[in-house]
TrEMBL record:
Major subcellular site: cytoplasm
Record-listed substrate binding positions: 111-114, 189
Chain residues that bind ATP: 6-13, 137
InterPro entries referenced in this protein's UniProt entry, alphabetically: ATPase_NBD, Type_III_PanK
Record-linked PANTHER family: TYPE III PANTOTHENATE KINASE
Residue positions of the active site: 113
Function: Catalyzes the phosphorylation of pantothenate (Pan), the first step in CoA biosynthesis.
EC number of the protein: 2.7.1.33
Catalysed conversion reaction: (R)-pantothenate + ATP = (R)-4'-phosphopantothenate + ADP + H(+)
Co-factor note (free text): A monovalent cation. Ammonium or potassium.
Protein name: Type III pantothenate kinase
Protein backbone atom coordinates (compact mmCIF):
# COMPACT_ATOMS: atom_id res chain seq x y z
CA UNK A 1 0.00 0.00 0.00
CA UNK A 2 0.98 3.61 -0.57
CA UNK A 3 0.72 6.27 2.14
CA UNK A 4 -0.07 9.69 0.65
CA UNK A 5 0.17 12.91 2.67
CA UNK A 6 -1.17 16.30 1.59
CA UNK A 7 0.18 18.84 4.10
CA UNK A 8 -1.80 22.08 3.98
CA UNK A 9 -1.71 25.26 6.04
CA UNK A 10 -4.53 24.23 8.37
CA UNK A 11 -4.91 20.48 7.90
CA UNK A 12 -2.93 17.47 6.79
CA UNK A 13 -4.85 14.83 4.86
CA UNK A 14 -3.48 11.28 4.93
CA UNK A 15 -4.62 8.36 2.82
CA UNK A 16 -3.84 4.70 2.25
CA UNK A 17 -3.93 3.93 -1.47
CA UNK A 18 -3.82 0.85 -3.63
CA UNK A 19 -3.88 0.53 -7.45
CA UNK A 20 -7.39 1.00 -8.79
CA UNK A 21 -9.33 -2.13 -9.63
CA UNK A 22 -10.41 -0.51 -12.91
CA UNK A 23 -8.81 2.27 -14.90
CA UNK A 24 -5.79 4.43 -14.01
CA UNK A 25 -4.85 5.75 -10.62
CA UNK A 26 -5.53 4.48 -7.13
CA UNK A 27 -8.39 3.70 -4.79
CA UNK A 28 -8.37 5.30 -1.34
CA UNK A 29 -8.74 2.54 1.27
CA UNK A 30 -8.59 4.73 4.39
CA UNK A 31 -8.12 8.41 5.13
CA UNK A 32 -7.55 10.80 8.02
CA UNK A 33 -7.46 14.58 8.49
CA UNK A 34 -5.36 16.07 11.29
CA UNK A 35 -4.31 19.59 12.22
CA UNK A 36 -1.11 20.93 10.69
CA UNK A 37 0.85 22.05 13.75
CA UNK A 38 4.14 23.75 12.89
CA UNK A 39 5.37 23.02 16.42
CA UNK A 40 5.02 19.25 15.97
CA UNK A 41 8.41 17.54 15.77
CA UNK A 42 9.50 14.72 13.51
CA UNK A 43 9.15 12.20 16.35
CA UNK A 44 5.66 13.47 17.16
CA UNK A 45 4.61 13.07 13.53
CA UNK A 46 5.95 9.51 13.60
CA UNK A 47 3.95 8.68 16.73
CA UNK A 48 0.83 10.19 15.18
CA UNK A 49 1.25 8.25 11.94
CA UNK A 50 1.89 4.92 13.61
CA UNK A 51 -1.08 5.49 15.91
CA UNK A 52 -3.39 6.11 12.96
CA UNK A 53 -2.03 3.28 10.84
CA UNK A 54 -1.86 0.68 13.58
CA UNK A 55 -0.77 -2.69 12.25
CA UNK A 56 -1.06 -1.37 8.71
CA UNK A 57 2.16 0.62 9.22
CA UNK A 58 4.13 -2.53 8.42
CA UNK A 59 2.31 -2.84 5.08
CA UNK A 60 3.40 0.56 3.74
CA UNK A 61 5.39 -0.02 0.56
CA UNK A 62 5.75 3.60 -0.54
CA UNK A 63 5.24 7.21 0.57
CA UNK A 64 4.17 10.27 -1.43
CA UNK A 65 4.19 13.71 0.19
CA UNK A 66 3.37 17.25 -0.85
CA UNK A 67 3.38 20.30 1.39
CA UNK A 68 2.61 24.01 1.29
CA UNK A 69 4.27 24.54 4.71
CA UNK A 70 8.09 24.46 4.47
CA UNK A 71 8.69 24.14 8.24
CA UNK A 72 6.40 21.12 8.48
CA UNK A 73 7.93 19.55 5.37
CA UNK A 74 11.34 19.86 7.06
CA UNK A 75 10.08 17.82 10.03
CA UNK A 76 8.52 15.29 7.67
CA UNK A 77 11.84 14.81 5.90
CA UNK A 78 13.50 14.13 9.24
CA UNK A 79 10.68 11.81 10.25
CA UNK A 80 10.81 9.82 7.02
CA UNK A 81 14.59 9.48 7.27
CA UNK A 82 14.48 8.35 10.91
CA UNK A 83 11.32 6.23 11.08
CA UNK A 84 10.57 5.13 7.51
CA UNK A 85 14.08 5.03 6.06
CA UNK A 86 13.53 1.69 4.31
CA UNK A 87 10.36 2.80 2.51
CA UNK A 88 10.67 4.30 -1.00
CA UNK A 89 9.30 7.85 -1.07
CA UNK A 90 8.59 10.79 -3.34
CA UNK A 91 8.40 14.35 -2.03
CA UNK A 92 6.72 16.52 -4.65
CA UNK A 93 8.82 19.62 -5.30
CA UNK A 94 10.44 21.38 -8.29
CA UNK A 95 12.33 18.80 -10.33
CA UNK A 96 10.00 15.90 -9.58
CA UNK A 97 8.35 14.47 -12.69
CA UNK A 98 4.62 15.08 -12.86
CA UNK A 99 4.09 14.78 -16.60
CA UNK A 100 1.99 17.93 -16.81
CA UNK A 101 3.37 21.10 -18.49
CA UNK A 102 3.03 24.20 -16.29
CA UNK A 103 2.37 27.29 -18.41
CA UNK A 104 3.09 29.91 -15.75
CA UNK A 105 5.44 32.88 -15.60
CA UNK A 106 7.35 31.08 -12.84
CA UNK A 107 6.35 27.39 -12.61
CA UNK A 108 8.35 26.93 -9.39
CA UNK A 109 6.10 29.25 -7.42
CA UNK A 110 2.95 27.18 -8.05
CA UNK A 111 1.97 25.12 -5.03
CA UNK A 112 2.71 21.43 -5.41
CA UNK A 113 -0.83 20.53 -4.35
CA UNK A 114 -2.24 22.58 -7.23
CA UNK A 115 -0.01 20.83 -9.78
CA UNK A 116 -1.03 17.47 -8.33
CA UNK A 117 -4.72 18.39 -8.61
CA UNK A 118 -4.19 19.37 -12.24
CA UNK A 119 -2.39 16.10 -12.97
CA UNK A 120 -5.15 14.09 -11.30
CA UNK A 121 -7.98 15.80 -13.16
CA UNK A 122 -6.17 15.54 -16.51
CA UNK A 123 -5.53 11.82 -15.97
CA UNK A 124 -8.72 10.73 -14.23
CA UNK A 125 -11.37 13.14 -15.55
CA UNK A 126 -9.89 14.63 -18.77
CA UNK A 127 -9.70 18.26 -19.82
CA UNK A 128 -10.45 21.02 -20.36
CA UNK A 129 -11.22 21.31 -16.68
CA UNK A 130 -11.32 23.55 -13.64
CA UNK A 131 -10.47 22.17 -10.21
CA UNK A 132 -11.95 24.04 -7.25
CA UNK A 133 -10.22 23.00 -4.03
CA UNK A 134 -12.06 24.15 -0.91
CA UNK A 135 -9.42 24.42 1.80
CA UNK A 136 -9.88 26.20 5.10
CA UNK A 137 -7.21 28.82 4.38
CA UNK A 138 -7.74 29.25 0.64
CA UNK A 139 -10.08 28.24 -2.13
CA UNK A 140 -7.98 27.57 -5.22
CA UNK A 141 -9.06 27.42 -8.85
CA UNK A 142 -6.79 25.53 -11.25
CA UNK A 143 -7.36 25.31 -14.99
CA UNK A 144 -6.26 22.44 -17.22
CA UNK A 145 -6.40 22.69 -21.02
CA UNK A 146 -7.71 20.02 -23.36
CA UNK A 147 -4.06 19.14 -24.04
CA UNK A 148 -3.43 18.37 -20.37
CA UNK A 149 -1.52 21.59 -19.61
CA UNK A 150 -1.73 23.56 -16.39
CA UNK A 151 -2.59 27.02 -17.72
CA UNK A 152 -3.13 28.97 -14.49
CA UNK A 153 -5.83 29.72 -11.97
CA UNK A 154 -6.92 31.89 -9.07
CA UNK A 155 -6.66 31.96 -5.27
CA UNK A 156 -9.41 33.28 -3.00
CA UNK A 157 -9.65 33.40 0.80
CA UNK A 158 -10.94 30.15 2.24
CA UNK A 159 -14.36 29.92 3.89
CA UNK A 160 -12.96 29.16 7.34
CA UNK A 161 -10.39 31.95 7.34
CA UNK A 162 -12.98 34.44 6.05
CA UNK A 163 -15.37 33.55 8.85
CA UNK A 164 -12.55 33.75 11.40
CA UNK A 165 -11.55 37.21 10.14
CA UNK A 166 -15.12 38.47 10.49
CA UNK A 167 -15.29 37.16 14.05
CA UNK A 168 -12.03 38.88 14.97
CA UNK A 169 -12.58 42.23 13.30
CA UNK A 170 -16.33 42.65 13.72
CA UNK A 171 -17.15 44.19 17.10
CA UNK A 172 -20.66 42.71 17.17
CA UNK A 173 -19.88 39.51 15.30
CA UNK A 174 -18.81 36.15 16.64
CA UNK A 175 -17.71 32.73 15.52
CA UNK A 176 -20.54 30.56 14.24
CA UNK A 177 -20.90 27.04 12.93
CA UNK A 178 -20.19 26.62 9.25
CA UNK A 179 -23.55 25.33 8.09
CA UNK A 180 -26.20 26.09 5.48
CA UNK A 181 -28.74 28.58 6.87
CA UNK A 182 -32.49 28.34 6.30
CA UNK A 183 -32.50 31.00 3.61
CA UNK A 184 -30.31 33.50 1.78
CA UNK A 185 -32.13 36.41 3.41
CA UNK A 186 -31.25 35.74 7.04
CA UNK A 187 -33.39 36.73 10.01
CA UNK A 188 -30.61 36.77 12.64
CA UNK A 189 -26.89 37.50 12.88
CA UNK A 190 -25.79 33.86 13.05
CA UNK A 191 -27.65 32.93 9.89
CA UNK A 192 -26.57 36.16 8.21
CA UNK A 193 -22.94 35.10 8.67
CA UNK A 194 -23.72 31.61 7.47
CA UNK A 195 -25.55 32.97 4.42
CA UNK A 196 -22.63 35.19 3.50
CA UNK A 197 -20.16 32.34 3.86
CA UNK A 198 -22.08 29.54 2.14
CA UNK A 199 -24.03 31.36 -0.57
CA UNK A 200 -21.29 33.94 -0.99
CA UNK A 201 -18.74 31.19 -1.65
CA UNK A 202 -21.12 29.48 -4.08
CA UNK A 203 -21.67 32.70 -6.02
CA UNK A 204 -17.93 33.37 -6.10
CA UNK A 205 -17.23 29.91 -7.50
CA UNK A 206 -19.91 30.20 -10.17
CA UNK A 207 -18.72 33.66 -11.20
CA UNK A 208 -15.04 32.73 -11.45
CA UNK A 209 -15.69 29.44 -13.26
CA UNK A 210 -17.93 31.16 -15.84
CA UNK A 211 -15.22 33.77 -16.45
CA UNK A 212 -12.53 31.07 -16.80
CA UNK A 213 -14.62 29.08 -19.27
CA UNK A 214 -15.23 32.22 -21.34
CA UNK A 215 -11.53 33.11 -21.28
CA UNK A 216 -10.54 29.63 -22.45
CA UNK A 217 -12.98 29.98 -25.34
CA UNK A 218 -14.62 26.59 -24.83
CA UNK A 219 -18.27 25.65 -24.51
CA UNK A 220 -19.48 25.25 -20.94
CA UNK A 221 -20.81 21.76 -21.73
CA UNK A 222 -17.31 20.66 -22.74
CA UNK A 223 -15.77 21.77 -19.43
CA UNK A 224 -15.22 19.41 -16.51
CA UNK A 225 -15.54 21.26 -13.19
CA UNK A 226 -14.27 19.25 -10.22
CA UNK A 227 -14.93 20.06 -6.57
CA UNK A 228 -12.50 18.79 -3.95
CA UNK A 229 -11.32 19.70 -0.45
CA UNK A 230 -12.92 19.06 2.93
CA UNK A 231 -15.26 22.07 2.70
CA UNK A 232 -16.63 21.19 -0.74
CA UNK A 233 -19.79 19.49 0.62
CA UNK A 234 -20.77 22.77 2.26
CA UNK A 235 -21.39 24.50 -1.08
CA UNK A 236 -21.61 21.59 -3.51
CA UNK A 237 -25.40 21.61 -3.80
CA UNK A 238 -25.49 25.42 -4.03
CA UNK A 239 -23.33 25.53 -7.19
CA UNK A 240 -24.67 24.67 -10.63
CA UNK A 241 -21.25 24.48 -12.29
CA UNK A 242 -19.83 21.28 -10.78
CA UNK A 243 -19.80 18.10 -12.84
CA UNK A 244 -17.67 15.93 -10.52
CA UNK A 245 -17.09 15.74 -6.77
CA UNK A 246 -13.79 13.98 -6.08
CA UNK A 247 -12.97 14.43 -2.37
CA UNK A 248 -9.64 12.57 -2.62
CA UNK A 249 -8.36 14.16 -5.83
CA UNK A 250 -5.06 15.33 -4.27
CA UNK A 251 -4.35 11.97 -2.65
CA UNK A 252 -5.02 10.18 -5.92
CA UNK A 253 -2.79 12.68 -7.71
CA UNK A 254 0.00 11.89 -5.23
CA UNK A 255 -0.38 8.25 -6.18
CA UNK A 256 0.07 9.16 -9.86
CA UNK A 257 3.22 11.18 -9.11
CA UNK A 258 4.64 8.31 -7.04
CA UNK A 259 4.10 5.86 -9.90
CA UNK A 260 5.92 8.18 -12.31
CA UNK A 261 8.94 8.63 -10.05
CA UNK A 262 9.37 5.40 -8.13
Amino acid sequence: MLLAADIGNAHTVLGLLQPAAEGPGHDVLAHWRVGTDERRTADEWAVLLRGLLGRQSSEIEGLAVCSTVPSVLHEWRDMLGSHFDDVPRVVVEPGVRTGIPVLMDNPREVGSDRIINALAVATLHSGPAVVVDFGGTATTFDVVSAQGQYVGGAIAPGIEISLEALGRRGAQLRKVELARPRSVIAKNTVEALQSGMVFGAAAQVEGLVHRMVAELGVHADDMTVVATGHLAPLVLEECSVFTVHDPWLTLRGLGLVYDRNR
